[in-house]
Design brief:
By secondary structure, the protein is mainly α. 62% of the residues lie in helices and 0% in strands. The chain has two domains: 3-88, no CATH class; 99-133, no CATH class. The two termini are 32 Å apart.
Length: 137
């Protein structure tokens, strides 16, 4: 990242804390359907609604941005990472046609990173069937 880009990210984060949930501010940070806009808008939204019980409100607010789908996607990813997937609104998550696949993959990734059922580079795994789920690895 350039210094200017870091400054933009810091500004979005700071403004979310100092001036939360301001639709005009969100529109200025995320004016178009580009990745930088989605990132800045999503960061602003996540900082505006930092609590676990505010996730649904955050996503509704994010949807009001000029490219609301992208901003809500980034905000949801940030808030889901911060509070866990369980904090995401079930009615929204369940609409995703592959939600159960994403859930299983995410849980398996966390299991492998924390418990190592498939083992690690120099240690064997404790679940002899773990790699049957992911034979390509």
């Amino acid at each position: 990242l350039t210094a200017g880009q870091r400054d933009q990210l810091a500004t979005a984060l700071r403004q979310g804390g100092e001036h939360p949930a301001d639709a005009r501010r969100l529109a200025r940070l995320a004016p178009d359907p580009t990745a930088p806009s989605a990132l800045l808008g999503g960061l602003y939204v996540a900082a505006s609604f930092p609590e676990r019980d505010q996730v649904a409100a955050a996503l509704r607010f994010a949807a009001g941005a000029p490219d609301g789908d992208s901003v809500a996607c980034v905000a949801g990813a940030l808030l889901g990472a911060a509070h866990g997937a369980e904090a995401l609104p079930l009615d929204l998550v369940s609409r995703h046609e592959l939600a159960w696949v994403l859930d299983v993959l995410a849980r398996d990734l966390v299991a492998q990173l924390t418990d190592r059922p498939g083992g690690a580079e120099y240690t064997p795994g404790w679940d002899e069937h773990w790699w049957d789920c992911y034979p390509g690895w």
